[in-house]
Amino acid sequence: MGIEQREVWITGIGLVTALGDGVEANWAALTGTAQPTPILDRDVVAPFVVHHVPEIDFSTQIPKRGDQRQMELWQRLGVYAAGLALDAASANDDEELKSAMDMIVAADGGERDIETDNNLFTGLLTAEDREALLIERLSNDLRPTLFLAQLPNLVAGNISIVHGVTGSSRTFMGEEAAGHDAIRIAHSRIAAGQSEICLVGGAFNARREDMVLLFEMDGYNWTEVETPVWQRSEAADGNGGLALGSMAAFLILEDAAHAKARGVTPVAALDAVVASRGKRTAGHVTSTLEQLWQTANVPTEGPLGVLSGATGVAGSTAEEAEFLRELDNAAQLDVRAPGHLIGHGLESEFPVCLSLAALCARDGQMYPDHGGRLTGTGEALASANAIEQVAVISIGHWRGEGLGLVRKVS
Amino acid sequence: MKDKNGFPLIAVTGMGILTALGEGRDDNWAALTQGKSGIRQITRFPTEGLRTTIGGTIDFIDVEPFTCASFTTEIARRTAAEALEQAGLAGQAEFPGPLFMAMPPIEMEWSMRAAMVDRSGAQGDASYADLYRAAKQSAPHDRELCLFGYIAETLAEEFGTQGSPVSLTTACASGATAIQLAVEAIRRGETEAALAVAADGSMYPETMIRFSLLSALSTQNVDPAKASKPFSKKRDGFVMAEGAATLVMESYERAKARGANILGIIEGCGEKADSFHRTRSNPDGKAVIAAIENALKDAGRAPHEIDYINAHGTSTPENDKMEHFVVKSIFGDHTADMPISSNKSMIGHTLTAAGAIEAVFTLMTMQHGRIPPTINYDEPDPDIDLDVVPFTARDQDVAVAMSNSFGFGGQNASLIFAREPA
Predict the structure, then answer these.
(1) Closest residue to A138, CB basis, from B103, B107, B206
(2) SS3 label, residue A76
(3) Closest partner residue to B410 among A146, A157, A170, by Cβ?
(4) Per residue in A58-115, pLDDT tens?
(5) Which of A230, A337, B3, B149 has the largest count of CB atoms under 10 Å?
(6) Helices A349-363/A176-191 angle, 10° precision
């Protein structure tokens, strides 16, 4: 590194998952003594199952009905979570701060008009000229505004409009890797002094027939959604699988000195974010994790929290599990993988897992494992184990490996 | 060597380009400076029923299967290969830096959905629930061709770029954003080199219909070569086009140390988001002005030092009016001495790729001392008094140049280029 690195804090989080609306609702569900009961949708995408978010009063963050109408659910979730993060960082009432604030969004896109698609599928069964039918029906049936609700960069565009964040606006795509890179670049820009404060995150709507179809093409859909991700490869075909989950997380990353000057208390410090890629040949995930672990300076001695975005897809999840079991401090790892509680959120997976990890670091301990324990780790941990640092792992379902490291700020 | 802010100076050492005008720097530059149009009737798919039937299509390249992702990947990789060749880095297993890839949103193709409808066995009515049954029989790799990450993964694999490749979009400013991200990575000292690639092969009926429904496209189908007329009175929308460009970027020190030919310097980048509307700039122009002023500040340049502007110049009524207003606001009297031309009059609007394609053309303008024209300027808009270099290229020394890119979603980006320091 050629430039002196500054300390980066997480000073605000906005979070929505199948466990609840907002950071505190999620945290209460995870830290309560009862097994959390995520919202599952078994109807819209039947016979498949996805985790879905609760009913949300979007008007608390998106007051204009006209703005809400311009967005599909995915964009609304993102703009809503971004507003929660700005509130949490005491930034929402500071127009000057927001006009200088940078923004990186990890975006999905292409939310479709399912009724129009279904009508077209029916038409295709009998059409003599399919291309003419497509042009005729799409020209007549698509809403003009739907295009804007499909464009990936319109989550950021709507955040600018609704919340006034306009310092810069960048949108990354590419499934899980988009989340890794959004956080990684926001972090490295602040650490290097290229940015003071950045709103970064993503949103995903899993209750989409077209998205479930896409994942069914290669047989990824997993219907026994309560099965912890580590155990999914034990099922009949051995391939494991994932259940998509609607979710959104936005974080405010901020130069520590900048936050101190504003009088803001951090949720946690973000000490490192690294990412990689490569063909998923056998051993790739293992060797990549070894390299990322080193680059990020993750402690290999003493207790460590691990928040894993493991998908449940057999090969990569098994390699990740084995990597953790082989670490020198495996017996002192406190591993959580919330996939069986909140589903898998693609671009949002890493921002969501990072948010949960930051809350663990803030409280100095991991939430109860709710049946998702990774065998072969944590044998030497005390029952109420104190942790200072949490590593966040995100291995994409197809490509892309990301790692973050958060730390309690004392 | 450091820039005015003490960061590593950024050199461009390789460029590749592919547009409707042709493949490669030489063919493109020749056509562009001869004022040729690459806009034509679309023949790749039936256009009956479409309001717009013309575009800047790259008809001379085909891929199998033809999808948005496979075609975008192919045009991207060809420009990357050309750029690496020029940089003297061709044939190496690894490129010594990251990839920043500007690309259009990727979706499942209608051809794939139709094949699933056929396989589903549905009778009478068909819906997604029927398609689920047929999904797993899709052709190998079909799903990968629907993933946003596919293009960058393919290029990263082929060219051996380092780390996680960033796939990005800032709508029609994406190409400029890819370059800006590369500049920032080198300035941070994370890397000494980076590959900025931008490509757009998203011309298919559904995208064209979406843009048409927003009344964004020109409907002057009768004489395609005349349809894109930036800054003209009768401009009525942009002409959609395919294209790709790659820039090999390095720290100046590294480029000199390895004896690379320096094609130009990227001096500054500026951006600023607009919070006014999803598709329109705030009429006060403040965000666009701020983006350009941020670029000037980043480059350490005063407005009068800019010799030439490669305009965003889309040929939409709104953009060209706004760009004129903004340029006059910032450059004042200097505007009269500063040519500003739009490549889009000839190649159309290459959307995601535009910022990088126009960066390449801007650097070539400086290399050759020849400014490409704005064609189709038969009836100037009386409210726009800019020197648009009408009809024919102009020989003029350009030492410092600016390229602007604006996009839906309030995206505004501006880049400043200079020659290698003496």
Answers:
(1) B206
(2) helix
(3) A157
(4) 999 999 999 999 999 999 999 999 999 999 999 999 999 999 999 999 999 888 999 9
(5) B149
(6) 50
